[in-house]
Amino acid sequence: MKFSLCSHLTSEMTKSRGELHRLRKDVSVRTSQITCMEESLQHMKNQLDRKSDMVVDLEEKLHRCEADKLNCVQRVQMLEGQLQVVREELADTLEQLQKLKDILQRTQTIADERQASVEKLTVQLR
């Protein structure tokens, strides 16, 4: 019985050592997997941080572009207003120029008529 108990204990010890070895190997594999997962997680975190920074930069650029666009729209409106004023001034200037041209033509016609009269009188006086 003693031998059988010893044999049984030896068998149990062998099983336990095998189980312990299997558990240690499993722990080692799991530890390695956890290490890989932690490295992968750190890599993903770094990528997320970079992308978050990019998002912040792009949002800032977007806000600047929107502000620039608003400024451009306001500037276009101002320039269109100035252009309209200049067109109106040009139209007034052209109207005044036409009036002056008409006056000049009438004055030239009168001067030509007077010159003709002077020449006529000069001929008569000779």
Could you give the topology of this structure?
Elements: H1 2-125
Describe the fold and architecture:
This protein has one helix and no strands. With 126 residues, the protein is mostly helical. The protein is rod-shaped and about 175 Å long.
Please summarize what this structure is.
By secondary structure, the chain is mainly alpha-helical.
Q: What's the average pLDDT?
A: 94
- Total helices: the number is 1
Radius of gyration: 53 Å
Query: What is the chain-wise order of helices and strands?
Result: H
* Separation of the first and last Cα atoms: 178 Å
User: The biggest beta sheet, please?
Assistant: none
* Structural class assignment: mainly alpha
Q: What low-confidence regions span 5 or more consecutive residues with pLDDT below 50?
A: none
Total count of strands: 0
- Percent helix, as a range, is over 70%
Strand content: under 5%
Principal-axis shape equals rod-shaped
What brief labels describe this structure?
126 residues, mainly alpha, 1 helix
